[in-house]
Amino acid sequence: MPRLLLLIPTTTYRTEAFVEAAHRLGVEVVVASDRPNALQHAVQEGLLTLNFLKPDVAARKVAEYARRHPIDGVVPVDDPTTVVGAAIAKALGLPSNSVESTYAALNKSVMRQHLSQAGVPSPRYWLFLLDDDPALAARTVPYPSVLKPTILAGSRGVIRADDPAQFVRAFRRIEIILRTPEVAAMGDGARQILVEEFVPGMEVALEGLLIKGDLQVLALFDKPDPLDGPFFEETIYVTPSRLPAPVQDAIAYCTARAAQALGLREGPVHAELRVNESGPWIVEVAARSIGGLCSRTLRFGTGMSLEELIIRHALGMEIASLQRDRKPAGVMMIPIPRAGVLHEVRGREEAESIPGIEGVRITIPIGQEIVPLPEGTKYLGFIFARDETPERVEAALRQAHRRLTFVITPAPETPERASQAPEAGLQVDMMRH
């Protein structure tokens, strides 16, 4: 029985999907996380605790473990595990991306450098440090511009500025995020703010698999909601794309060029692009698969999940087909409308009764404090749909979302929260959709 090492951050939504896929394949699973698991003492051999911020140390620890329990494949599940996953695979002599390429995909500033040097269409950029004077920095960039941390994912800390005053406010807001202990611990990247020239256009997401440097397109998602700022909270993904075939081909070609420029050669890639009259532009390329629970929209061959496909590739197992189920599908990442404490979710049964809706999954527990973007890191949950056309999928997702009501009350005030709160007040008791 092959043995698979899953690198799973404690913050991921995706543990269940990967573990279930491994069990379907008859694969033994070793789970490595960045914090001790509650089952660590009961199941010593199947659970590891690794410091994902120290790839060399983690690789040595896994290599020692593998001498007793050989490992046949490594799968990093989310962004915090891609670099350490590459280091572990190298130490074990397994096919993978290089440490340098995964770091280039993880750090947005390094990514921009590689893409620019290779001539891959991507926005112009400027890099600033937290100690820089934002008022002076604001005079050196064009507008509109987009400010973002170099090392965070999921649109956290990504803010558009249309003039110098907005630039300064955005810079200070991102600074607060970067100085939080959990982010500051990420190293030098936590002291940098990347500024990019805003690229207008429709945004899409490409899900792909690299096999010996060759990009296989698994799915192309349209994002029908405009993502023009001031924040960039993603909502609806629908596949297949409704863009013309030549445009889709150009998107795939641009993504393949970007992966090559970064040095990526093996495993899943998730790319975000903008498309306008000049063609596709790379926003980001991540050396991992689509995040959250969004992979549930994808099925391959005779019902294979995306996670099963990724595990098969990591273990060198046969993949009968990379062909996606052609029935249109989509997902809505339910945005957090206001900061506060989530007390109740109403209308779930009504939402799930909409034709085409496959399910509504609320992923934040009742009673938990919630924080919207750009400071937040999570969505309220996910709505899944499948129907005969992409238009019907999109309509079903929007209709189901309108059925949901979220009862949110202000969180208890603390001195720390008062010092970090954005300018807008938190004054909602109940918010529909």
Describe this structure in words.
The protein is an alpha+beta fold and 433 residues long. Among the domains are: 3-99, Rossmann fold, CATH 3.40.50.20; 124-197, Dna Ligase, domain 1, CATH 3.30.1490.20; 327-433, D-amino Acid Aminotransferase, Chain A, domain 1 (2-Layer Sandwich), CATH 3.30.470. Helix content is 30%, strand content 27%. The chain has 13 helices and 22 strands. It has helices at 15-24, 55-68, 82-92, 99-106, 108-118, 134-137, 164-178, 181-184, 245-262, 306-315, 348-352, 390-403, 415-420; strands spanning 3-7, 28-33, 47-49, 73-76, 125-129, 145-149, 159-161, 192-197, 202-211, 214-223, 236-239, 267-276, 279-286, 299-300, 304-305, 329-334, 340-346, 357-362, 369-370, 381-386, 405-409, 430-432. The strands form 6 sheets. It has a 4-stranded parallel β-sheet, with helices on both faces. Strand 1, helix 1 and strand 2 (28-33) form a beta-alpha-beta unit. Helix 4 (99-106) crosses helix 5 and helix 5 (108-118) crosses helix 9. The longest helix has 18 residues, at 245-262. The protein is globular, with a radius of gyration of 21 Å. The relative contact order is 0.11. Mean pLDDT is 92; it is low at 38-44 and 423-433.
What is the averaged pLDDT score?
92
Structural class: alpha+beta
CATH topology of one domain: D-amino Acid Aminotransferase, Chain A, domain 1
Query: How much β-strand is present in the residues?
Result: 25-35%
Model regions low in confidence, pLDDT < 50 over at least 5 residues: 38-44, 423-433
> How many runs of DSSP E, i.e. beta strands?
22
Radius of gyration: 21 Å
Task: Summarize the biggest pleated sheet.
Answer: 4 strands, parallel
Please work out how many helical segments DSSP would assign.
13
Instruction: Based on the coordinates given, report the CATH architecture of one domain.
Output: 2-Layer Sandwich
Shape: globular
Give the CATH class of one domain: Alpha Beta
The CATH homologous superfamily of one domain: ATP-grasp fold, B domain
- Widest beta sheet: strand line-up: 3-2-1-4
Gap between N and C termini: 47 Å
* Helical content band: 25-40%
